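[step 3/7] fold_predict: job queued, chain A
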Amino acid sequence: VEYQLSLEAKYPQALLNIKSAIVWLREHADQYAIDSSRIVVAGSSAGGQLASLVGLTADVPRFEAQLELKYSTQVQAIINLDGVVDFLAPLSLNLERKADSPDAFWLGGTFVEKPLIWKEASPIFWAREDKKIPMLFINSGLPRFHAGQDELVGMLKRWGIAHQVHTIDVQVHPFWLFYPWVDSCIDIIDQFLKRVNLKNRK
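[step 4/7] structure written:
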C-alpha cells in the first residue's frame, strides 16, 4: 500500500491512506477474488508503527469520521517489523531529537509541543482486551525500534490474544531487506499466520 510521507502530508494522513486501501480491498473483493475475511496489515520501521496503529484503531471514529466508509477497516492480524509502538516509552522519548527530527516533523511538533498527538500516534494506547487481533513482532538487535513493545506484549498475554516476538539479533535496522534475514522473516511470518488460522477470524 502506498501512503503519503511526511513531506506530502502530516499525521494522521498516512494512517487514513492505509485505512482507505483496506476499504478498497473489501469493496473490490469480488472483482479481484480477494478473501476479505483474511486481511493482514504488515509494515517495517515507520510502516510497522503504522501497521500496528491501523490494526488497533479499526472502526475508531476519531480516525475514520473523515473517510467515506462502506466497509470495516478491521484486519485479522498485524505484523510489525522493528516499528515503535509507544513514542512515550523511555527508549523513544529519551532520544535526543532536534525540533525538525523526522517524528516531530511528521507529528507536527515535538513531544513538549504536541504531547497528546504523540500519545495518539502510539499504537499501544489503542490496544483493548476486546480487540482479539493477533500480533507478530520481528525485531532487530536495536532496542529503540521496539520501544514500548514489552508493555504491549504483557497486555496481549494478560488478555489471551495471540502474539509472537522474534528477535533477529543484528545491529541492522532494515534487516528484512537483506540475505539471509529476509528468508528468516518470510518463514516466521508464514508460520505465524498458519498458527493463528485466519480462516476462523472474521
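[step 5/7] annotate
The chain has a mean pLDDT of 93.
Strands lie at 40-44, 77-81, 135-139, 163-167.
exit 0
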